[in-house]
Amino acid sequence: MRSIAVKSPDGTTIATFEGGNPAGPAILFMHGLMQCHLAWRRQFDDPALAGAFRLVAMDLRGHGASDKPVGKEHYRPDKLWADDVAAVIVQLGLRKPMLVGWSYSGRVITDYLRVHGQANVAGIDFVGANTKSDSALLGPAIKLISAALSDDLATRIDGTRAFLRACFERQPSDDEFAFMLAYNMVVPAQVRAAVLSREANPGDMLAKLNCPVLVSHGSEDPFMLPAMAQFTASQVKGARLSMYDKIGHSTFYDDAPRFNRELMEFVRAAQ
Fold this sequence. Notes:
Rossmann fold; 8 strands
């Protein structure tokens, strides 16, 4: 991946990474809470995806290699997150990218739509995505996040480890898990708490979408229940719901061949 530093309007540097075919249609990947661009390695390493598409992944503010300002004021407003995505699209010259948002980035995508609209979006793949703040749509693993917010380092490590384990129905190898835990721990406790202190997302943007939408979701997702995916798909006219049987929160990792194939087909159909 080629690293690119993108400057958001508020001065925050958003670390962005590019690979694949620079002449192909663009796909912009956005990760979940405490993750980073490295979550998408099974997509960037796929020869078919990399050969056909321009692959771009951004680290959300406070995550990965992006700036990590301290203070809730750097995370609570929708516009900050929306402007981060817009800055990546504009500064990298992405023409109508496909937005792929995992977990928390379902919220980030709706932030972008609320502020900047959908005119410069080819389509959206909501991946195990949180698109509405509603406890009835959340699974039991959500409670694991509490320990991952602790100011006590040992508690925070244990909490992050339990949170990360719950992200996978098919567990990574010990080496892969250690690598993932390392980049999850990069996110400071204050940032984690600030991200989760945001006002509720009413889920109102979905019904306004007129671009192609794919909803990719695992049947065993312990964070975002299948009901979340069903809600998302029901709100968007013409949305396609793709359920992964016996797969958890990380469809793109647990069944990368299927995920990559469906994403490729979806991007091509949206052109």
